[in-house]
Amino acid sequence: MNKLQLRRYAKLLAKTGVNVRKGQWVVVQAELDQPEFVEMVVEELYRAGAGKVTVEWSHQALTPLHYKYAKQEVLEKFEKWEIEKLEHRLNELPAMLYLESADPDGLKGVDQDKFTAVRSARSKVIKPYRDSMENKYQWCIAAVPGKAWAKKVFPDKNLGNTGVDALWDAILQASRADGPDPVRAWLYHNDELAAKCDHLNRLKLVSLEYRSSNGTDLKVGLIENSTFCGGGEETIDGKYFNPNIPSEEIFISPKAGEAEGIVYSTKPLSYQGELIEDFSLRFENGRVVEVKAKKNQALLEKMISMDDGAKMLGECALIAYDSPINQLGILFYNTLFDENASCHLALGRGFNECVRGYESMSAEELHKKGINDSLIHVDFMIGAKDLDVVGVTKSGERVQIFKNGNWAL
Ligand code: ZN
Fold first, then answer.
1. What are the φ and ψ backbone dihedral angles of 338, each rounded to 5 degrees?
2. pTM of this prediction?
């Protein structure tokens, strides 16, 4: 892979992604797949002003071993030092950079019940920390190729390193990091997304209606005084950062408890290492009342039974059918990419920052307004070539937002 281009990508993650503050502590979480690239990232973070950079390595192949040999209560238990680490994070608020490269099938064969139980028990301990840190620090999720992941995406190119190189190319292209100045490209991209958000926010919509020939016919209520967001975000104290690279979506947190109708998935959903395929969800009074899936229906049912919020919507995201990622025509088996290729919804937790004035509201107030709460937030794709989206205003005016899969604004 071209080292100069990787260096440009590393700089993009440091500057545009986490947008590190002078002297700030940055934690990088990475798998063992691309140590040389991680070196570049660490150097670019220091060059961008980081005071301290810590790398936390992980190795996905260990997870199935832990689940095979360790007892559930052992996996659920938090050691004292782990709690102290969470507290330390909460006090120091380091910027976080997550480099994803794991094998989409890497958790295959792991006991699903045990996995869900452990995850839910651990989430309960982590959640209060996560909630009190929310919107206070910069973070960025981006990707680097792993061998098994590359093999999954490009099964035919698995001779030597060609699969990994092909995945690098796809990641850089999808992330708008394949040109001479990715940081500049992102300035332009963020401006464009912000202009779309402004347009939508001026309409003051109360609901969105989705329709396509595959059977999707869904109406979703929106929260009063909520805003569409996209691209970069700001921390409560005003530091701009890009939580996802790539990011093509304009999204809003819908009103929990207001969804009516049926929606059909248009891409497989990768959940806990398994693919849920060809599924539909029927909503009544905002909650899923019926699911059907051609593959892994039981897993989908388990997912929505995680808690009450798992049956309700936490995100409506709009992405043009002609988006660069969809045009690549690659299924990445990774939400960061696949969600940016298609209009999607998410079941579970919503986004506080989509409500105007959220900074001065308590979690309870936000929940009351309609921001959904759950241990999960799982995106699923509903974009189709003929998807129409209509926004309805308070006075009942209907505004065409998407026509035939693309922006109509
Ligand atoms: Zn999304």
1. -65, -30
2. 0.84
